[in-house]
Design brief:
Elements: H1 17-23, E1 30-31, E2 34-35, E3 37-38, H2 49-62, H3 71-91, E4 98-101, H4 104-116, E5 124-128, H5 137-140, E6 148-152, E7 154-155, E8 160-161, H6 163-168, E9 174-180, H7 192-201, E10 205-209, H8 221-224, E11 228-232, E12 242-246, H9 248-253, H10 277-297, H11 304-331, E13 336-339, E14 353-358, H12 367-376, E15 379-380, E16 382-384, H13 389-394, E17 403-407, H14 414-428
Parallel strand pairs: 3-15, 5-6, 5-9, 9-10, 10-11
Antiparallel strand pairs: 1-2, 4-12, 7-8, 11-12, 13-14, 14-17, 16-17
Helix pairs in contact: 2-10, 3-10, 10-11, 11-14
Bound molecules: pyridoxal-5'-phosphate.
Length: 429
C-alpha cells in the first residue's frame, strides 16, 4: 500500500498552461486554417509526447511475451510491474489490486460474469439512470440468471442522482450497486463515498465507474472503500486501455472464467490472453506525466502519489475556471439549453463536461449539425448519446440526436472557450 498523500506544502495557484500544452504535440494541429480545439476529452484525451515515446520504445526494444527466460521478456515483466505500481499510485491501492484489460467495458463484463456465477433468483443489483451503458448492461445481463435489476432515478431538472431513491431501493437482497463517479454526458459528479457506505450497510458490493472522473479529479479507492473501480487510461492522457481496481480479497475469492495454463495468482488470473504491452508501457508514462505536472506546481511533493495529489489540485482549479466561463457564456446564448447542473453554488458536483441542445431544432441545428459546423471550424465536440443511452432516453432527446457535448480538460485554454462561444453564437444566429 502506498503512503497517504500530504498536501501541507503550498501549491502554486495556477496551472502552467504553456508547459502543459507543450507536452501534447497533437494540440498544435489546424483544421481548415483554424487552430484545433480539442473539446472531445470525454471521448478520449490527447497524449503527451512521453506516452508516444514509451509505446514506441517498448516496441523498438522490449517487444516480447511475458515469463520467458531471456532479456526482452524479463524487461516486459518488469515493465508490467512498473505500470501496476504507477496505477496503484494513481488510485491509491496496492499494485496487486490492479488488473489491466482492453477497456472498461470488457473488464466490467468479465467481472459481472464472475460475480454473477454466485447470483440467482432473489438477488438484486442496483444500477442508475445516469450511468454510461458499460456500467449498466453487463449487470442487466445477469437477468438471464434470474437476478432482479433495480434502477436509481435522477432529478431531471439538473440531472443529479436521486440518492434518496437509490437508498430506498437498497435492501437485504441487494448484492451489488453499480455507480458512476461522474456522468460522461452531463458532467454530474455523484456522492460516491456516501453511496459506497450505503451499499456496504446492506452488505452489497460497490462497483464504481470512474472512467469519466479520471481526468478531472483525484481518485482514492482507499478513502472511497469501494470494492471495485474501473477507469480507462485513454480518458486521462494515456493509451487505449482499461484498468480495474479490485480489493485483493475479492480478486482472490471470485472465480474468473480463465484458461487452465493461466496462473491463479492475483491479479493475473483476471488478465486473459496476451495484454497490449506497448500500451501498458504508455500507462506508466501517462501517470508520470500527471505526477510531473504535480511536481511542476509543487516541487516538494515527496512521493509520486503526493505529486498526483498536487496535480489534481491545480487541474481542478484550472478546469473550474474554464467551466465557469463556459457555463456563463452558454447561459447568455438564448438559443442554447444546458442539461445538468447550472447553479454555480453546486459546481462542486459537476465536471467541465457540458451537454447542450439548440432550443429550436426546427432550424436544422441538431446536435450532429452543430458538431459538424463546429468541426469545420476546428472545434472537436461530440453529438449523440455517448452510450449514456438510458439518460438520453429518459430525457427524451434520444430520438432527436441526443446532445452536443463540449468536454474540457486541463490542456484547454480560456481562449478556446471564448472562441467556441463566438462560433456557437454565429452558427445559431
Ligand atoms: C463514464 C464511462 N464509462 C464507461 C465507458 C466505457 O469505457 P471503455 O471505452 O474503456 O470501455 C466510457 C466511455 O466513454 C465512459 O465515458
Amino acid at each position: 500500500m502506498t503512503t497517504m498523500p500530504t498536501t501541507e506544502h503550498a501549491v502554486t495557484p495556477t496551472l502552467d498552461l504553456t508547459w502543459v500544452r507543450s507536452q501534447f504535440p497533437s494540440l498544435a494541429q489546424t483544421v481548415n486554417g483554424h487552430p484545433a480545439a480539442f473539446l472531445d476529452g470525454p471521448g478520449g484525451t490527447q497524449v503527451p509526447q512521453r506516452v508516444i515515446d514509451a509505446i514506441s520504445n517498448y516496441l523498438r526494444r522490449d517487444n516480447a511475451n511475458t515469463g520467458g527466460a531471456y532479456a526482452t521478456s524479463r524487461n516486459t515483466d518488469a515493465m508490467l510491474a512498473e505500470a501496476r505500481a504507477a496505477m496503484a499510485d494513481f488510485l491509491n491501492c496496492a499494485a496487486d489490486e490492479i488488473v489491466f484489460g482492453p477497456n472498461m467495458t470488457t473488464l466490467t463484463y468479465a467481472m459481472s460474469r464472475a460475480i454473477g456465477r454466485d447470483l440467482g433468483p432473489g438477488d438484486e443489483i442496483l444500477v442508475t439512470r445516469l450511468d454510461h451503458d458499460a456500467n449498466v448492461t453487463p449487470w442487466l445481463a445477469l437477468e438471464e440468471k434470474g437476478v432482479t435489476i433495480r434502477w436509481a432515478e435522477i432529478h431531471k431538472e439538473d440531472c443529479t442522482l436521486d440518492v434518496e431513491d437509490l437508498a430506498a431501493k437498497l435492501n437485504s437482497k441487494t448484492r451489488l450497486v453499480a455507480i458512476g463517479y461522474a456522468s460522461n454526458a452531463v458532467g454530474t459528479i455523484n456522492p460516491v463515498k456516501e453511496i459506497v457506505r450505503l451499499a456496504h450497510s446492506y452488505g452489497a458490493l460497490a462497483y464504481v465507474d470512474a472512467v469519466h472522473y479520471g481526468p478531472h479529479g483525484l481518485i482514492d479507492v482507499a478513502d472511497l472503500d469501494c470494492d471495485f473501480l474501473v477507469c480507462s487510461t485513454y480518458k486521462f492522457f494515456g493509451p487505449h486501455m482499461g484498468v480495474l481496481f479490485g480489493k485483493r480479497e475479492h480478486l482472490a475469492r471470485l472465480r474468473p472464467y480463465k484458461v487452465r495454463p493461466l496462473t491463479d495468482a492475483v491479479p493475473n488470473r483476471w488478465e486473459w490472453g496476451t495484454l497490449n504491452h506497448e500500451c501498458i508501457a504508455g500507462i506508466t508514462a501517462c501517470v508520470n506525466y500527471i505526477a510531473d505536472l504535480g511536481r511542476h506546481t509543487n516541487p516538494q511533493a515527496a512521493t509520486r502519489r503526493a505529486a498526483i495529489v498536487a496535480a489534481f489540485e491545480v487541474i481542478h482549479r484550472h478546469e473550474y475556471g474554464l467551466m465557469q466561463r463556459l457555463i456563463t457564456g452558454l447561459s447568455k446564448i438564448p438559443k442554447i439549453k444546458i442539461y445538468g447542473i447550472t447553479d454555480p453554488s453546486c459546481f462542486a458536483w459537476r465536471c467541465p463536461t457540458l451537454a447542450v441542445r439548440a432550443v429550436n431544432q426546427n432550424e436544422g441545428n441538431t446536435p450532429l449539425a452543430l458538431a459538424t459546423k463546429l468541426g469545420d471550424r476546428g472545434f472537436f465536440t461530440w453529438d449523440g448519446n455517448y452510450y449514456a443511452q438510458n439518460l438520453t432516453e429518459h430525457l427524451d432527446v434520444e430520438k432527436s440526436g441526443g446532445f452536443l457535448r463540449i468536454g474540457l480538460v486541463h490542456y484547454n485554454a480560456a481562449e478556446e472557450v471564448d472562441r467556441l462561444l463566438l462560433a456557437l453564437k454565429q452558427i445559431l444566429s
